[in-house]
Amino acid sequence: MKFQRDFENFKTACIPWEMKIKEIESHFGSSVASYFIFLRWMYGINMILFGLTFGLVMVPEALMGKPYGSLPRKTVPRAEEASAMNFATLWDFSGFAQYSVLFYGYYNNQRTIGWLKFRMPLSYFLVGVGTIGYSFMIVIRTMARNANEDGGGDDTSFNFSWKMFTSWDYLIGNPETADNKFASITTSFKEAIVEEQESRKEENIHLTRFLRVLANFLALCTLAGSGYLIFFVVRRSQKFALEGLENYGWWERNEVNMVMSLLGMFCPTLFDVISSLENYHPRIALRWQLGRIFALFLGNLYTFIIALMDEINLKLEEEKIVKYNMSIWEASLYNGTIPENSTAPPIEVDPADVPRGPCWETMVGQEFVRLTVSDTMTTYITILIGDFLRAVFVRFFNYCWCWDLEYGFPSYSEFDISGNVLGLIFNQGMIWMGSFYAPCLPAINVFRLHTSMYLQCWAVMCCNVPQERVFKASRSNNFYMAMLLFILFLSTLPAVYTIVSIPPSFDCGPFSGKTRMFEVISETLEHDFPSWFGKVFGYASNPGLILPFILLMVCDLTLHYRTANKHGEDYRIQ
Amino acid sequence: MGNKQTIFTDEQLDAYQDCTFFTRKEILRLHGRYHEMAPNVVPMDYTKDPDVKLPMQLIINMPELKENPFRERIVESFSEDGEGSLSFNDFVDMFSVLSEMAPRELKAIYAFKIYDFNTDNFICKSDLEKTLNKLTREELTAEEITLVCEKVIEEADMDGDGKLGFADFENMISKAPDFLSTFHIRI
């Protein structure tokens, strides 16, 4: 019993950033703090994903696999050697970064490696599937838990009375905590007052309806415009790639990433302006805003994926040509020394000189890593310029400016919850999509979330002001979770498609030489399990059995979710 | 048993344990706290039931009460003479009601007393205004204060007299999820 209590205390003590979030909560209210709580939760998930990929994929290969330089796939080609150590190349994740455990292409297709007989390809495949399975499980579990909590204590029949008589915590003895508590109580009252006032307002129905239709039309135009822009830019980049990227400067090379990041930065503000036409209750306006930004990011992401599919197909075509060239090159090595059709000891060739097959998996991994990095950079720069420089400008130029900068335009910025949450969700979607091809992605994301937490906490406390229209977004929690679940599902589709239907490259990665990546499972069953197991599994993997099983799981999930909801309702009625 | 203490007689300690939710050790510790607030006034020997009261100013400067916006009202509610000076009995009573072990009904009685600023046995609009101002340190506008007070009366007033009687207050507070955890002082 005592051990249990100690363990609970220890677990609570391990939760990071608790004080930071409490401080933000007392200054900005529950909705801004909910973003940081969400960020912290994501950080936890990414830590686990990082643990899986690092511990079961990267470390075994680094410790027990063949070292750098021993195989052609593990060496920088002779042609690129000169620039392999440049910062520009490394920042672009080519050169030495590309030929390392960070990307798919480095891994060897040996069935077991090292003295532990570690099954590398199997581990790679299972970690990939496991990260997705774990993510699904934890998102659904959190959704069910949130549904329970929301349903339980959200009784609003004595809202103001309880705020008045039970909000002060008599245990507070520290002056700073007391200050924070006063601030948080004041904010809480203001939230409730705004809600009350909103519910009392009257509306002019026809004008409102017309304005809302107009606003939706404008939003659709923006979405269509952004979709077309990305399509156009992607086509252009394919044209550049065909003509060889060396002829173009930095902008042309990174055009797609930059355009996507810029669209992600400016369109939400545009949606915000459009939504001022609509005159909704703040909570509903937030949902519309989130929906529109969601559609924007989704369109962008899928256009990006279609572009990638085009490139993958190109590379697959290239493979055939390269295979042919390689056979010619090998023949030329033995040129004249040995007659054909006889076995001969292989000639020692430096791995850097061997011609390479194209590696579409590494290319996909690299694209995702670059996108993540450019997204991170854009976010940080937006914070620094949009929030910090703006605050500095307003603060110091207020003395010598004609109108009051602090109350009029531009004034201090408010913390944009919806934009930030969606950015976080889509960032996570990209990680889920790309982590199969670039095991380093969860590590990069952990680093990104860690620094993001500190940077954004600082920026919020230093440059932002509490929102004017304050309202409680607590019920939006499951809304964010539902979006996350949807994105998770959409992110796994491309990865699953490539695993199941595209042949892996013949020259790189742990599945090279197989016709499909999932064959590693059947191979393991053959070699490592007794034969009857293989037979049973063969019968069980009949589609006739798997489909009903999947249906059963879906029904079970839905039932689980519904009973969770119903429990919440019952509790409320009581 | 072991410790031979000379502050209280055994009958006094038993009486305290019956009337409050404290154990023997805690009562002795409370006496220590009471004594150290005014060592010259409070005697160490309580066996003769000395008539000693400490003024409000000393009590509200205790670290447990210092930051509480309702500290004066708390001390006044437990003071027998209504002026805010506490004898040791009042002192122990106060912390006993505010401790974890006190039941909800008892806490509700005293909470009602605390929030009833003009001590007319009703929580009327002016009481609510004072409570709200203390909670928000007067950061709300007059409109907002009026709105909140009206809403509170609308929500909790069952008998329609425009103010909260004890029955209304009790009905409302018994359903509150946070009441027990916030109306608690640890000493």
List keywords for this structure.
heterodimer; A: 574 residues; mainly alpha; two-stranded parallel sheet; 2 strands; 70% helix; B: 187 residues; Recoverin, domain 1; 2 domains; two-stranded antiparallel ribbon; 52% helix; elongated
Description:
The complex is a heterodimer of chains A (574) and B (187). By secondary structure, chain A is mainly alpha-helical. Chain A is 70% helix and 1% strand. Chain A has one domain (1-203, 279-339, 349-510). Chain A has helices at residues 2-14, 18-28, 30-64, 87-91, 120-152, 159-166, 175-200, 205-243, 250-253, 255-275, 282-333, 360-397, 417-434, 441-463, 477-501, 519-528, 531-540, 543-573, and strands at residues 413-414, 464-465. In chain A, strands 1-2 form a two-stranded parallel sheet. Chain B folds into 2 domains: 10-98, EF-hand (Recoverin, domain 1), CATH 1.10.238.10; 104-182, Recoverin, domain 1, CATH 1.10.238.10. Helices cover 52% and strands 2% of the residues of chain B. Chain B has 10 helices and 2 strands. Chain B has helices spanning 10-19, 24-37, 56-59, 71-78, 88-97, 104-115, 125-136, 142-156, 166-174, 179-182, and strands at residues 53-54, 86-87. The relative contact order of chain B is 0.11. The model of chain B has no long low-confidence stretch (mean pLDDT 89). At the A-B interface, helix 6 and helix 7 of A face helix 7 and helix 8 of B.
Short description:
Chain A: Its main location: membrane. Chain A is mostly helical. Chain A is built from 18 helices and two strands.
Write the layout of secondary structure elements.
The complex is a heterodimer of chains A (574) and B (187).
Chain A: H1 2-14, H2 18-28, H3 30-64, H4 87-91, H5 120-152, H6 159-166, H7 175-200, H8 205-243, H9 250-253, H10 255-275, H11 282-333, H12 360-397, E1 413-414, H13 417-434, H14 441-463, E2 464-465, H15 477-501, H16 519-528, H17 531-540, H18 543-573
Parallel strand pairs in A: 1-2
Helix pairs in contact in A: 2-3, 2-7, 3-5, 3-13, 3-14, 5-15, 5-18, 8-10, 8-11, 10-11, 10-12, 11-12, 11-13, 12-13, 12-14, 13-15
Chain B: H1 10-19, H2 24-37, E1 53-54, H3 56-59, H4 71-78, E2 86-87, H5 88-97, H6 104-115, H7 125-136, H8 142-156, H9 166-174, H10 179-182
Helix pairs in contact in B: 4-6, 6-9, 7-8
